[in-house]
């Protein structure tokens, strides 16, 4: 089945999430209903007709290194050019630098569509969008003027270089160094791993944002600075000069996302320019990472939507046995219907959480209101973790719906499961997202968590009685879990983190189902399924929260091996 963009979901959710508030601000006044509709419709066309046909090509013909040059999958250059020429890279970038200046919310919808169509290719502009935002907030005027317009146009593309062999989640352990050259530039030396789209053959320059340590810098993250280290050294007018002393050492052989080249990079006294202040590299990089965390959460939704559509088409066409409902395809079997309903319901809930986060980001930027900014910060780890957990779960259900054919690569169901797996790992594992949620995001003593519970309770009270009662009970359970979490020390919070994250997301996602059903009664059957079949899962996770780290360390490493 060809991919079809879920435009009806976007229209409904933009209304439910209060996108009209965003469009009413001075900053985003151009995001009128007609403009938004035109953008979504054209992005759907691009995704369905240009990008979706490339998905299998990227999987079957991975990027390779030939004579030091990365050769990308067939059709990717043309697909990228269509993205760039349509202005899609710079949707949310400032108009002063050639961008559209649109809300992140609309860019998030578009990125979901392009990710459903071809996730491996979509990762390239997603990273560039994050780099544009980092430069906008932290680079000096000269660097912004030189780099951002060329990133927006797709003439150049951007990467982020954090991880090293000995420094994964512990970024503060990095060893890459930057030596001042006396003219305002630096010689950057070190090795980086897991660098997505570290090079390609369809942009003129690759712009690496690299974390490195200055001579005598403090240990840990406080001693890290950020540098722009381009593949080719640009002249002041933007023309390209000499090749910089950096190279792709090799491309990794990966489980999935074969069309997206993931490289080991070597910087050998490569010339770089500092972005932001010395020792403030992590703050600058986090601007890019937070942008990417929402984007990666929506990548999970992207794959979930594509996997669901394919599984639905297969279930309708596959005739196997006599179904209890009398329907012709296996879609008439109760267990197959259960899987499809779960796929649809969880995908919708994850999409809703991601768009709620995007609206909060837009409102924070447009109004400067600290409450919106705090809301966006709280929702970001939920959007990333729930979106990617959903992508993985839905892709696996898609394989199951296909039965034995799901295990056969020719159907494409397995590719979704392989491609989406990394999303719960990169841009901060989902465990790290959970630690962020129960740590930094709870420094307000749970005010944001309880505020969201209040909002959910108010909406639940308006729902039909059979949905209202279980939802209100779930919110009470979530409040109790929040109180238990706040009473725990660091070790117990670490043991509770993922369970709390999942419980909160399950209840919040169900809340958005109820809001959707309130706005459109045709959505009531899906909301009823979410409340009766999926919401009860929160109780098990909430119970786990109360136990903290209890039993986690009862076995020594030696005993675990016994």
Molecular structure report:
It contains 19 helices and eleven strands. By secondary structure, the chain is α+β, with helices and mostly antiparallel strands. It folds into three domains: 7-153, Acyl-CoA dehydrogenase/oxidase, N-terminal domain (Butyryl-Coa Dehydrogenase, subunit A, domain 1, Orthogonal Bundle); 158-278, Butyryl-CoA Dehydrogenase, subunit A, domain 2; 430-555, Substrate Binding Domain Of Dnak, Chain:A, Domain 2 (Up-down Bundle), CATH 1.20.1270. Strand 1 (64-66) and strand 2 (69-71) form a beta hairpin. The longest helix has 37 residues, at 281-317. The chain is globular.
Question: How would you briefly describe this protein structure?
Answer:
By secondary structure, the protein is α+β, with helices and mostly antiparallel strands. It is built from 19 helices and eleven strands.
């Amino acid at each position: 089945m060809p991919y079809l963009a879920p435009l009806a979901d976007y229209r409904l959710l933009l209304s439910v999430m209060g996108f009209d508030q965003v469009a009413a601000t001075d900053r985003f006044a151009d995001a009128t209903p007609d403009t938004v509709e035109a953008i979504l419709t054209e992005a759907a066309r691009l995704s369905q007709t240009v990008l979706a046909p490339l998905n299998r090509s990227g999987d079957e013909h991975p990027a390779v290194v030939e004579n030091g040059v990365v050769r990308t999958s067939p059709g990717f250059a043309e697909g990228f050019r269509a993205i760039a020429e349509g202005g899609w890279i710079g949707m949310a970038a400032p108009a002063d630098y050639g961008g559209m200046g649109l809300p992140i919310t609309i860019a998030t919808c578009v990125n979901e569509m392009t990710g459903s169509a071809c996730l491996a290719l979509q990762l390239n502009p997603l990273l560039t969008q994050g780099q544009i935002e980092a430069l906008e907030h932290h680079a000096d005027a000269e660097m912004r003027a030189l780099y951002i317009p060329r990133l927006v146009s797709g003439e150049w593309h951007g990467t982020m270089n954090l991880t090293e062999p000995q420094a994964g989640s512990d970024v503060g352990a990095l060893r890459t160094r930057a030596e001042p050259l006396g003219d305002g530039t630096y010689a950057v030396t070190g090795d980086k791993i897991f660098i997505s789209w570290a090079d390609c053959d369809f942009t003129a320059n690759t712009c690496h944002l690299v974390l490195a340590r200055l001579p005598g810098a403090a240990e840990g993250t406080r001693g890290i600075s950020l540098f722009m280290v381009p593949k080719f050294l640009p002249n002041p007018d933007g023309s390209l000069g000499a090749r910089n002393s950096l190279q792709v050492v090799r491309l990794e052989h990966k489980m999935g996302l074969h069309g997206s080249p993931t490289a080991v990079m070597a910087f050998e006294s490569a010339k770089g320019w500092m972005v932001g202040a010395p020792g403030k590299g992590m703050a600058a990089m986090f601007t890019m990472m937070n942008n990417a965390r929402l984007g990666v959460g929506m990548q999970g939704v992207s794959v979930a939507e594509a996997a669901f559509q394919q599984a639905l088409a297969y279930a309708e066409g596959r005739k196997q046995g006599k179904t209890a409902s009398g329907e012709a395809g296996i879609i008439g079997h109760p267990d197959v219907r259960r899987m499809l309903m779960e796929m649809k319901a969880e995908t919708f809930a994850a999409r809703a959480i991601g768009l709620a986060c995007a609206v909060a980001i837009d409102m924070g930027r447009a109004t400067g209101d600290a409450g919106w900014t705090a809301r966006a910060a709280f929702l970001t780890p939920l959007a990333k973790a729930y979106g990617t957990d959903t992508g993985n779960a839905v892709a696996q259900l898609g394989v199951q719906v296909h039965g034995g054919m799901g295990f056969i690569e020719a159907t494409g169901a397995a590719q979704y499961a392989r491609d989406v797996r990394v999303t719960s790992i990169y841009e901060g594992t989902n465990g790290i997202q959970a630690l962020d949620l129960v740590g930094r995001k709870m420094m307000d003593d749970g005010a944001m968590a309880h505020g969201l519970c209040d909002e959910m309770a108010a909406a639940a009270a308006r729902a039909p009685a059979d949905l209202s009662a279980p939802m209100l009970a779930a919110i009470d359970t979530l409040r109790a879990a929040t109180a238990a979490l706040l009473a725990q020390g660091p070790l117990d919070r670490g043991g509770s983190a993922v369970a709390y994250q999942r419980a909160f997301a399950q209840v919040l996602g169900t809340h958005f189902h109820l809001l959707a059903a309130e706005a459109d009664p045709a959505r009531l059957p899906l909301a009823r399924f979410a409340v009766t079949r999926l919401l009860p899962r929160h109780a098990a996770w909430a119970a786990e929260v109360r136990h903290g780290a209890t039993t986690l360390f009862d076995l020594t490493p030696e005993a675990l091996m016994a």
